[in-house]
Amino acid sequence: MRLHENLLDLTHLSFLHARTFGTPDYASAPCETTLDEARGHFSLTRSVMPTRLPPVWGRPTGLEGVDAAHIATSTFVSPALHEVHVRFHACDLPEAGQPQRAIRTAHIVTPETATRTHYFVRHARNFAPGDEGITAFMHEQLLAAFQEDIDGLEANLAAYAPGTAAEISLQADKPSLAMRRWLKRRAG
Ligand SMILES: [Fe+2]
After folding, report:
1. Is residue 187 one of the residues assigned to a domain?
2. Which residues have a Cβ under 8 Å from the Cβ of 98 and sit 6 or more positions away?
3. What would the pLDDT profile of 28-53 be if each residue is shown by its tens digit?
4. Fewer CB within 10 A of the end CB, N or C, for the chain?
5. pTM (2 d.p.)
6. How many domains does the chain have?
7. What is the 3-state secondary structure (H, E, C) of 12-64?
């Protein structure tokens, strides 16, 4: 559950991933939520523009050091799957006239016991698909960021065991709360 909550509001990029791929403006960017109770799909879209992309996105897309748009949607699809869709474009031209630069990430959650889970991650991109140098660079950068997720989640679980702390929820937590209620109803 916490793994899904960690993904549903990627404002954690600005804080947890400050040393790897977070940028300060991500958390304050406008966001839109979509709650599809019938299908159990809950998502949040953030549009950060103009922004300066961190090297992990800027270098492979050729948008390093220029004003760029970073549009990310994170979606809870099922207890086993969370999808992140991200697209980038330069701000000085209309998006439609630019080459596509999109990344899709599947976060695949497979619990092993009540307190342990496997966490599989697959990244796909639709630009420079055959460039092994870009693949290696992104792999190295993203692996460092995922270690931050592991450290953050473990520290969170150690400090706040379920039911031991009052919770403060903000507007951006809407999809997380809807997802949690949906899971609770299905489990009941
Ligand atoms: Fe993360």
Report:
1. no
2. 89, 90
3. 888 899 999 999 999 999 999 999 99
4. C
5. 0.91
6. 1
7. HHHHCCCCCCCCHHHCCCCEEEEEECCCCEEEEEEEEEEECCCHHHHHHHCCC
Dist. CA 10 → ligand 1 center (Å):
7
Ligand 1 center–CA 146 separation, angstroms: 6
Length of the chain: 188
Per the CB < 8 A criterion, the answer to whether 89 and 53 are in contact is no
Ligand 1 centroid to Cα of residue 149, in Å, is 5
Nearby residues for ligand 1 (ion, Cβ within 5 Å) = 149
Report if residue 116 sits inside a domain: yes
Q: What CATH number is given to the structural domain containing 14?
A: 3.90.380.10
Q: Torsion-angle region of residue 87: left (phi > 0), alpha (psi -120 to 50) or beta? A: beta
> Taking the alpha carbons of 164, 19, 7, 3 in that order, is the dihedral positive or negative?
negative
With 0-12 CB in 10 A as exposed, 13-18 as middle and 19+ as buried, what is 25? middle
Residue 188 in any domain: the answer is no
121, containing H or E segment: strand 117-125
Say whether 155 sits in a helix, a strand or coil: helix
Q: Give the pLDDT confidence of 167-188 residue by residue, as tens digits.
A: 888 888 899 999 999 999 998 7
Among candidate residues 90, 111, 115, the one with its CA nearest the CA of residue 100: 90
